[in-house]
């Protein structure tokens, strides 16, 4: 145990308390973004459930990706409360649960984005075998595997970080229980634990990104062999939304998880794009750039207007 320090059972999330004059503005901003994020993800889930035309593997994967609703529920409500509250405390148990769900859902999203790339690869590179290789049942099994994989890694990392006691000062310099910020408060030597969880997170992040990159190399080579310009444009359009979300998701995630320990910068502000902006943009991109989704939305609006009459 570290000398002259006592074990503790509660943390204080420093969060945005270092910006006291901005807290009201940040609350309004984050609250509006959060409502829009929930609305967008719930709209995707609802449209996919209601419209039978969207009962295909691609949209089932998209519905699974809308689990970002749960992903944001783990941290944003607590962050909003802390922006207005004087006490920003969280129990050690609550911190562990928050970290476990955040890492698990984040890992699941990375795997589902990879599976969506695989789905596009089969649809474009193997169109004749696609109905046999990617069925709705098979899609469901892949999504279940993504959840199992994401939470298996999350449980291991969380158990590793919380295996011992924590020592004062009990200040987490973040607005949620980020693993790097928490592991530094461990009473035992935290260097090895921090290295292990960092290597696991970076490996998972880079591994899934490299798999997506590889699928798009094969997709690009297949698209370039299509003789007509219209065919090429149609093939590219089916991938545009997914590719845009991949760039945003992994771009912001790499800033958080690949940032060197010695580099300066406020970790709280650096994490905002990944935890708040990315979940807000994903449903927006998938709905605005998708003809099937817009058509399903028009159908729902048409039915509701006919009922009003």
What does this protein structure show overall?
Helices cover 72% and strands 4% of the residues. The protein is mostly helical. It is globular and about 65 Å long. It has a three-stranded mixed beta sheet. It has a two-stranded antiparallel sheet with strand order 1-4. Helix 5 packs parallel to helix 9 (191-224) and helix 9 runs antiparallel to helix 10. The relative contact order is 0.14. It contains twelve helices and five strands. It has helices at 23-50, 57-65, 68-73, 76-84, 92-125, 130-133, 136-161, 179-183, 191-224, 229-257, 267-288, 291-308, and strands at 7-8, 10-13, 89-91, 166-167, 171-172.
Q: Name the shape in a single word.
A: globular
Describe the strand arrangement of the main beta sheet, using strand numbers.
Answer: 3-2-5
Q: Please outline the major beta sheet.
A: 3 strands, mixed
Query: What do the pLDDT scores average to?
Result: 85
Portion in beta strands: under 5%
Estimated helix fraction: over 70%
Overall number of strands: 5
- The whole-angstrom Rg is 22 Å
Number of helices: 12
Question: Between the first and last Cα atoms, what is the distance in angstroms?
Answer: 72 Å
List segments where confidence is low: pLDDT < 50 over at least 5 consecutive residues: none
Structural class: mainly alpha
Order of helices and strands: EEHHHHEHHHEEHHHHH
């Amino acid at each position: 145990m570290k000398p002259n320090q006592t074990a503790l059972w509660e943390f204080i999330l420093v969060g945005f308390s270092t910006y006291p004059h901005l807290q009201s503005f940040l609350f309004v901003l984050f609250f509006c973004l959060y409502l829009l994020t929930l609305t967008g993800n719930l709209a995707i889930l609802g449209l996919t459930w209601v419209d039978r035309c969207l009962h295909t593997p691609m949209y089932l994967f998209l519905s699974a990706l809308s689990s970002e609703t749960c992903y944001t529920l783990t941290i944003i409500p607590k962050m909003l409360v802390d922006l207005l509250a004087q006490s920003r405390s969280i129990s050690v148990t609550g911190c562990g649960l928050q970290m476990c769900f955040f890492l698990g859902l984040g890992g699941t999203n990375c795997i589902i984005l990879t599976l969506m790339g695989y789905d596009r690869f089969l649809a474009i590179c193997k169109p004749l075998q696609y109905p046999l290789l990617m069925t709705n049942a098979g899609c469901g099994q892949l999504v279940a595997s993504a959840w199992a994989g994401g939470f298996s890694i999350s449980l291991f990392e969380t158990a590793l970080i919380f295996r011992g006691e924590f020592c004062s000062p009990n200040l987490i310099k973040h607005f949620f229980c980020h693993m790097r910020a928490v592991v530094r408060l461990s009473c035992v030597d935290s260097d090895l634990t921090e290295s292990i969880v960092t290597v696991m997170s970076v490996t998972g992040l880079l591994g899934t990104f490299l798999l997506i990159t590889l699928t798009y190399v094969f997709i690009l080579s297949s698209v370039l062999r299509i003789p007509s310009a219209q065919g090429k444009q149609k093939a590219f359009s089916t991938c545009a939304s997914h590719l845009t979300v991949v760039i945003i998701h992994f771009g912001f995630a790499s800033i958080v998880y690949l940032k060197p320990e010695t580099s300066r910068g406020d970790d709280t502000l650096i994490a905002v794009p990944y935890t708040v902006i990315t979940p807000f943009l994903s449903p927006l991109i998938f709905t605005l750039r998708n003809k099937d989704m817009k058509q399903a939305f028009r159908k729902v609006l048409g039915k509701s207007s006919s009922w009003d009459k």
